[in-house]
Amino acid sequence: MATAYGNGFMVSPSVSTSLKQRICSSFGLNGSGFCSYVSFRKRVFFISSISGGFDKQAASVSPTQSISPRLVYQGCKLVGCGSAVPKLQISNDDLSTMIETSDEWISTRTGIRNRRVLSGDDSLIGLASEAAKKALQMAKLDPDDIDLVLMCSSTPEDLFGSAPQVQRALGCSKSPLAYDITAACSGFMLGLVSAACHVRGGGFKNVLVVAADALSRFVDWTDRGTCILFGDAAGAVVVQVDFLFSLEDGIFSFDLHSDGDGIRHLNASWRQDETNEAVGTNGSLTGFPPKRSSYSYINMNGKEVFRFAARCVPQSIEAALQKAGLTSSNVDWLLLHQANQRIIDAVATRLEVPSEQVISNLANYGNTSAASIPLALDEAVRSGKVKPGHVIAASGFGAGLTWGSAIIRWG
């Protein structure tokens, strides 16, 4: 008979006492509310209720029926990815005709040489849908196989979000749940972790995580400090349930944080249009009705954002590695939000990850916010650089301030 523990897990008798102790401690929820990865190959069973669940189940069956413990450690795996970028490419030389700058000045300070920008009939939903379709194709799934769509974006084309529009564009006829996640450049990481939680605890089988942003719409193209950085893109991954008998999960661990005090360093704040005439007045209430409002251009203190990223991102990755029981030497690839090559290099140096194990496509696309990590991942997978089984330390960071890391296995 298996042994049941207070954390709700039930271990088969073939598991040694020392391993049982490891299971009980390792499967407690960590600080991020996630089950940490454990390297062992024994079956773990869960009884439906922590208190009295086994007795209730036993009482409900006849003496001739056997009680089969239910395996609930269902993990998840990344089975498909895709990306899309606008047709219009803007080079550093193009920008030099608009503002006082040069290709050398931009590339030496950021590592960026080109970026893609939405124009004409391009739309963010169109980009997101294209990336999603490619991810579904790689995963060998139909739109109706998807039971949840997560849209990670800070620049939706509707105030109320764009996820349902992506769901519609894909042709999902079963009306799966679709909702938006707003966390700027950390958006994809939050979407990935949310997908894993939905799969593990919510009974979802195939979750589509789409990250798409069009920050070019919120850039002051006369401000040399910000306009050189940003581009538009979309990326997507499919997170699929994996009923694990070996407990080898595709997402080992994560570490997520936010700090509202950092808003002063990076923001695009809501503001009232001072030139707008109020539509009517009741003659008695001051300031009513409200004036039309809009978001400001992106404001950023580059030096402070660099210091924040260089300090917090390595700490977050190290924390995630520790939760996974791994070190940086176990990592095949370092995949960071593509914000600035200097930040990427600083984090890699801190973690002692060789440059040949760092994924970077920043030079071609600039900072594409939430889309940057899945965009870079998709290119690395399709080029054959990232192979099934490779372990990736991924980290996003940006406005909020928010930052987060996850240790994942591709395929």
Structural overview:
This protein has helices at residues 17-26, 53-59, 92-96, 103-110, 124-139, 163-170, 187-202, 224-227, 302-324, 341-351, 362-365, 372-382, and strands at 3-4, 9-11, 44-46, 74-84, 88-91, 114-117, 148-152, 177-181, 206-214, 232-243, 251-258, 266-267, 270-272, 293-295, 299-300, 333-336, 358-359, 391-398, 402-409. It is of the alpha+beta class. Strands 4-10-9-7-8 form a 5-stranded mixed β-sheet, with helices on both faces. It has a 5-stranded mixed β-sheet with strand order 11-19-18-16-17, sandwiched between helices. It has a 3-stranded antiparallel β-sheet with strand order 1-2-3, covered by helices on one side. It starts with a strand and ends with a strand.
- Biggest sheet strand order reads 4-10-9-7-8
- Report the β-strand fraction as a percent range: 15-25%
**Termini separation:** 35 Å
User: Tally of extended strands?
Assistant: 19
Key features of this structure:
12 helices, 411 residues, globular, 30% helix, disordered N terminus
Can I get a quick summary?
30% of the residues lie in helices and 24% in strands. With 411 residues, it is of the alpha+beta class.
Secondary structure elements and pairings:
Blueprint: E1 3-4, E2 9-11, H1 17-26, E3 44-46, H2 53-59, E4 74-84, E5 88-91, H3 92-96, H4 103-110, E6 114-117, H5 124-139, E7 148-152, H6 163-170, E8 177-181, H7 187-202, E9 206-214, H8 224-227, E10 232-243, E11 251-258, E12 266-267, E13 270-272, E14 293-295, E15 299-300, H9 302-324, E16 333-336, H10 341-351, E17 358-359, H11 362-365, H12 372-382, E18 391-398, E19 402-409
Parallel strand pairs: 7-8, 7-9, 16-17, 16-18
Antiparallel strand pairs: 1-2, 2-3, 4-10, 5-6, 9-10, 11-19, 12-15, 13-14, 18-19
Helix pairs in contact: 5-6, 9-10
